Amino acid sequence: MTDPTPTPGIHHVTCIAGDPQRNMDFWVGTLGLRLVKRSINQDDPGTYHFFFADAAGTPGTSMTFFPWTDLPQGKVGSGQVSRTAFRVPEGSLDYWEGRFDEYGVSYGDRVERFGETVLPFTDPDNLPVELVEVEIPDDDPTVPWTEFVPAEYAIRGFHSVTLWLADPEPTMELLRTMGLEETGTEQAQGDTPGDERTRFAATGPVGQYVDVLPTIEGGRQGHGTVHHVAFQTPTDEDQSSMRSAVRSRGLNPTQQIDRHWFRSVYFREHGGVLFELATNGPGYDSDEPLDDLGGRLVLPGRFEDRREEIEAGLPDVTIPRAETAEVDD
């Protein structure tokens, strides 16, 4: 078998939230991401699916949520994505600490990790998140969304995910198969339970890193946990070759599933984390103009005929908007 095209990195991360309005208020109004798609869980159409990203919905920038209000609080443990980290421009963490103080966001002490400064915090569902200061190059593919946060501080897509695993070795071999390269190890810091953190790097500029930590700490899925992490396989051909490579590792990926804005393949890796392979197209602007992303409830294909029924079953939500009071001359 020929080697697959290496993944450029993370495509999106999907998490479980509780109250949908609280989730929307935090990720848009507090963190300053753009709501690029307001839709439904295609496997559970009575639940919203929110997509928060950069201004253009660039691959590698979208944090998505299923607000399942009836689920209990989750607990991060082995077999899960334990941390999701975002890139922010160098020198911006003072701004973010001030903003977190203003908005009552719980955050921890900064830590140094692989030569970078990391600010850990949690969202209203106690989801563990991090901001990592990096140098943003002039040709960076992400486009800052500036309705709430100035461009010089704005989140610029994913930095990394951290996987907690009881036996990291099979997963580390899988990451190598997917085209990530091991770049180093160091002692874990903060509240992570493992002794050693191993970093793998993908080929692209955004969502480049996957960190692996050993732990036997038990967890459960629910509010404040990651449902799955998706990796970019930009074209159908890339995805097909990666799917074959995953099968060669003894895993059982699904057939391709059309998710309307990308096409997906899913599988549980050896440690239990749900992985997705996602194409980069058609993209979030395939069914809405770029200027209007997130402005309406989008129902993919087969659900449009059920719009009245679906809308009636969903709670009302209001998209946060920056105050733009104008003074009359």
- The number of distinct helices, counting runs of at least 4 residues, comes to 5
Helix proportion: 10-25%
Domain unit count: 1
Radius of gyration: 19 Å
The SSE order reads: EHEEEEHEEEEHEEEEHEEEH
Which sequence of strands runs across the widest sheet?
A: 2-3-4-1-13-16-15-14
Domain VOC: 9-134, 157-280
Region (Disordered): 310-329
GO molecular function: dioxygenase activity
Keywords: Dioxygenase, Oxidoreductase
Description of the molecule:
This protein has an eight-stranded mixed beta sheet. Strands 6-7-8-5-9-12-11-10 form an eight-stranded mixed beta sheet, with helices on one face. The chain is globular, with a radius of gyration of 19 Å. The chain is built from five helices and 16 strands. It starts with 9 loop residues before the first strand and ends in a 16-residue tail after the last helix. Strand 6 and strand 7 form a beta hairpin. The chain has one domain: 2,3-Dihydroxybiphenyl 1,2-Dioxygenase, domain 1, CATH 3.10.180. The protein has 329 residues and is α+β, with helices and mostly antiparallel strands. Helix content is 16%, strand content 33%.
